[in-house]
From TrEMBL:
GO MF, any single term: isomerase activity
Organism of origin: Kibdelosporangium aridum
The keyword Nucleotide-binding belongs to this UniProt entry's keyword annotation: no
Organism classification: Bacteria, Bacillati, Actinomycetota, Actinomycetes, Pseudonocardiales
Keyword entries, A-Z: Isomerase, Repeat
Protein name: Thiol-disulfide isomerase or thioredoxin
Length: 618
């Protein structure tokens, strides 16, 4: 099958310069269809929204939530189809994909695309990417990244109007068939901490609650939360996929009135938990996802972005802000939040905390002199010292991973989500997509495997000298090993992301980010430039010219002639507002996307690199 080349333009009235037929959907199989294959011919007459995603990607998870209101509003005319094109080896496992569809409550058909066949046929370059297909089977809109719900709403409304008039729109149910759900006491738990009383507090993510268990890890003492997705405070609280939990020092708890801080991930909030009463209070966040606003200020006035874990360190609660690749700090005494580390660029870059790059930090653990962290998207173990300098112990970058022990400079992880400090000062790593607990010894720089065969371990804690592990995909806690027992060295394979590189010619290349405001909107230039483009590279010497930040979405790059391959890191954003002069205060929105584009140099390669932020390429 030939790859689609999208060279059409879309105006606000969905008029097309050319008509490009959507390529067929090809993959290994389907989920949420009752074991039936779905062809585009089966949904002709519907508006089809393809969501290219992979379940490791926090931006993809954001989009799943953004699409839910659209799916409800246009239920009789819109068919959403998830195209799962995996980044990591583990994500290509059909059982792991089935668990992820269950975990994240995906209520539409999902095509399993492990070889990235459909991904390549649609010329996709980023997770997530959204493609709209009209009722006659033609591609009419492409958008990369998140924050496109409003634009999609406008385009879908225009398509409904157009195809209702033409008689080509068919209303009714789509091919989605809900699977059976299995009940378990815990459901995709995320993290665990030990209370001063010796009980276990578990962030029970898919049950939208916090579970307190006896020290045996099985006996439920109480459940804090109704189990319904929501954000209500009080004695009958609601959460939305809570993840990390941090216990406060007793003197801080006495002043604040709560003993634990919960990272309420999908609500983009921090919640304070009083362990005596079970009452919950919102202590940080607005409930809105951070996109481009302030990062410092009164805690309940600052947007957060998918807080995944929390830890008490440096006199504050440090927040792993997985959604924008940064760390923030919450001060429970002054009730403020501030940026602690990171720039929002996704990558692996050490140095001063304010300049470092992170990649979906998902686990934290503190000692007196180090804050340990795991960056899941770079499969890295890192730490911050007391001088606020970031170091990497294990990890190569966004596209290298595996299961390999030995010297830390050669060791490999695969999408780790948790880290725990052991009694001897070494750290246990929940190496999630390898199904293993790994150990790193900072004294020797050696990496080993403590246990394997665990279903997606995502966190751990020490109980009576033993390691209790959150086996997330097994819906339980496990005691696979005591630290120091049965330690082994694994000489596994090194892997790289299968995503094919873009072949570019060395020398001058034009990079263009395509963005067209959705119907009824225009670029917001009331207060200056409405767009921003930031470009860096790995390795830095890949870019001879063109790195840096400008306010235009087109950039002349000069690529090195002596570098064979690398990654272009591109961050683009565009602000648009309602185009109605009668409205005094029009609604405005910011669209933003980060790309990590793997490239390979070849004299016969392309000299133009288009990236789709929203719209279609002319």
């Amino acid at each position: 099958m030939t790859r689609a080349v999208f060279t059409v333009g879309v105006t606000s009235s969905i008029k097309r310069k050319a008509r490009v037929r959507a390529p067929e959907l090809v993959g290994r199989g389907w989920l949420n269809t009752g074991d039936k294959d779905v062809k585009l011919a089966d949904v002709r007459g519907k508006i089809v929204l393809l969501d290219f995603w992979t379940f490791c990607c926090i931006n993809c998870l954001h989009v799943l939530d953004e699409l839910r209101p659209l799916e409800d509003e246009f239920a009789d005319v819109l068919v959403t189809i998830g195209v799962h094109s995996p980044k990591f080896v583990h994500e290509a496992d059909p059982d792991a994909l089935e668990a992820a569809v269950d975990r994240y409550e995906v209520h539409h058909p999902v095509l399993d695309d492990p070889e990235l066949t459909t991904w390549q046929n649609y010329a996709v370059k980023a997770w997530p990417t959204l493609v709209l297909i009209d009722p006659e089977g033609y591609v009419v809109h492409v958008a990369a990244g998140e924050g496109h719900a409003e634009a999609l709403d406008r385009v879908i409304r225009e398509l409904v109007k157009e195809h209702d008039a033409k008689g080509t729109l068919h209303r009714g149910d789509g091919p989605y068939t809900p699977p059976e759900r299995q009940h378990t006491e815990l459901r995709f738990p995320s993290k665990v901490v030990v209370t001063p009383q010796g009980t276990l507090l578990v962030a029970d993510a898919a049950n939208h609650s916090v579970a307190e268990l006896e020290a045996d890890g099985e006996t439920l003492i109480r459940r804090i939360g109704t189990g319904q997705r929501g954000r209500t405070d009080g004695a009958a609280p609601e959460f939305a996929e809570p993840s990390g939990i941090a216990l406060l020092p007793s003197e801080i708890a006495e002043q604040t009135g709560y003993h634990a801080v919960v990272a309420d991930t999908v609500n983009h909030l921090l919640r304070g938990l009083n362990l005596d009463t079970g009452e919950v209070t919102t202590i940080a966040g607005t409930g809105e996802q951070w996109r481009n606003g302030p990062t410092d200020g009164p805690a309940t006035e600052i947007d957060l972005s998918s807080p995944w874990d929390v830890a008490w360190w440096d006199g504050k609660v440090i927040i792993a802000m997985a959604g924008n690749h940064t760390l923030s700090a919450f001060d429970p005494i002054t009730h403020t939040v501030s940026r602690y580390a990171g720039t929002t660029v996704e990558g692996l870059n050490d140095g001063p905390a304010s300049e470092a790059f992170f990649a979906q930090t998902s686990g934290l653990a503190a000692t007196e002199d180090r804050l340990w962290l795991v960056d899941s998207e770079t499969s890295a173990l890192r730490w911050i010292d007391n001088d606020h300098v970031v170091h990497t112990a294990i990890g190569k970058g966004l596209f290298d991973f595996g299961h390999r022990d030995g010297d830390s400079d050669q060791a490999l992880l695969q999408h780790p989500l948790g880290v725990t400090v052991l009694g001897d000062g070494s750290v246990a790593i929940a190496d999630t997509y390898n199904g293993a607990i790994r150990r790193y010894d900072p004294e020797t720089g050696q990496v080993s495997t403590l246990a394997d065969g665990i279903k997606e371990p995502s966190g751990a804690a020490i109980v009576d000298g033993k390691l209790v592990v959150v086996a997330s995909a097994a819906h339980r806690l496990e005691w696979p090993v005591s630290p120091g027992d049965n330690e082994q060295l694994v000489a596994g394979k090194a892997h790289q992301v299968k995503r094919p590189p873009t072949i570019l010619a060395p020398g001058e290349v034009e990079l263009t980010v395509v963005f067209q405001p959705p119907p009824g909107q225009k670029l917001d230039e009331r207060y200056g430039p409405s767009t921003r483009l930031e470009i860096t590279s790995s390795p830095p010497e890949l870019l001879v010219e063109g790195a840096g930040t400008t306010t235009t979405l087109t950039r002349r790059l000069v690529l090195a002639t002596d570098v064979d391959m690398g990654v272009l890191h591109v961050v683009a954003q565009a602000a648009s507002c309602d185009d109605d002069p009668s409205i005094e205060h029009p609604a405005c929105r910011l669209t933003r996307q980060d790309w990590g584009v793997p490239i390979r140099m070849d004299e016969g390669g392309l000299r133009r690199l288009p990236l789709m932020l929203g719209g279609m390429d002319d």
